[in-house]
């Protein structure tokens, strides 16, 4: 049962401050923060991007949360996993933290600050900032933001409680990752040590789902549920960063979800939609619990994908970004413009049920959530190490309706050449310029993948040159599918944007080679663990 104060808060939020002060109740102005980062989630695989009643995609929870919240129609990230996650945790555009999708076992002994995969050691993490506001912090799911030292782990980045895996992916049933001379190693870690006993038997698989086999995303979701269920009124507010494995490969999910989509006759598409429905259900369980406990009215929920859906290998990964061009691994809109929304009772009533079309980036949440928590994010540790500053902008005035326009009008688009950081494009107001040779240079159909198409986006490339005759320029507001190349007809605009692109600074440390100590420790312990302990 709830206390009088909680019931009063739940029913009379608009009069909260004055009324609760008058009767002596303790009211916190700090909301619970639930940040959900969905993996490889395709634009066309979201229910709100399909006609009502479209049966193949079933996301009733997400659809309801958008009805109660704000659809973020122009949310941008990096084109693949680790750079987006590095950006989110550090508050920096990937060009100022990490544009490489390296495995987590790289190390350059000559650079103890930045000579590692993912986030440099001396950057302050998002959870470290939010902890300054007396939050209890949780991280569950895919990390993919560093492993080399204890400081690279979620615990080292400010998360009080964590259960996660380090790599880009692992097996949903065994948590195994290959990589040590052909030997598969368990990738499941909790707080400060391997998650002994939480990984399944190696006999568990998509084909062998025995009673004692726990699906990995069930394990992560149960930790989120526990964090909410055990919270008490006198406790600090919660910050939960939940990064499901779904919908990244391998395409695996409990059999009841597969059976639910038996009417789909394309196996990758069937599995993918079943996985999307699984995570929609899991999020629904958490939001239902928040409502039951009277916490929802003081919760801000953020959800977005880490990149566009993977359409490579002729669609074998199951995703679809229709009508956007391209997908994961490319800087077309289908690779970097992603599904996103905010919801929760903390949102002012006047903005609920709306759509925002101003630009927001994944690295803006670091700054935005810090401000919501009551912290001004300043990274003194990074400044002392001469690392790039935070790029994130505070989007709360825009989201809360204090202003009608996003503060962000420009987005440098990251890329790499070998292991060097480069700027592969620039969004400026309604225009977007791209440079380089881009794969996935085409469009899927309404139903993709399917058995009748043999198109392989991986081998479909387009060159975007440095002259107006060879360049790529699009008005992405009028032409979101990037069909109409304006470079030749707007040479002055193209050249101006190309000049602006050339002036963008980048961060490109030498991250070194694979360090053999990572596998040595992994083979010794049976788990992937930090391997470079520094004094």
What does this structure look like?
It is a single chain. This protein is an alpha/beta fold. Helices cover 25% and strands 17% of the residues. The protein contains 15 helices and 21 strands. The strands form 5 sheets. The chain has a 10-stranded mixed beta sheet with strand order 9-8-5-4-10-1-11-13-2-14. The chain has a 4-stranded antiparallel beta sheet with strand order 16-17-18-21, covered by helices on one side. Strand 6 and strand 7 form a beta hairpin. The longest helix has 26 residues. The N terminus is likely disordered.
Which of globular, elongated, flat, extended, rod-shaped describes the shape? globular
The proportion of residues in beta strands is 15-25%
Number of strands: 21
What does the average pLDDT come to? 94
Low-confidence parts: 1-27
Number of helices: 15
What structural class is derived from the secondary structure elements? alpha/beta
Give a short synopsis of this structure:
With 535 residues, this protein is α/β, with parallel strands linked by helices.
Write the layout of secondary structure elements.
Blueprint: H1 4-11, H2 16-23, E1 32-38, H3 60-68, E2 70-72, E3 75-76, H4 81-90, H5 126-131, E4 136-142, E5 161-165, E6 176-180, E7 183-186, E8 189-190, E9 193-194, H6 216-229, E10 238-243, H7 255-260, H8 267-292, E11 299-305, H9 312-315, H10 333-336, E12 337-338, E13 340-343, E14 354-356, E15 360-361, H11 364-373, H12 380-384, H13 396-399, E16 410-417, E17 420-428, E18 431-434, E19 436-438, E20 462-464, E21 472-475, H14 491-502, H15 516-525
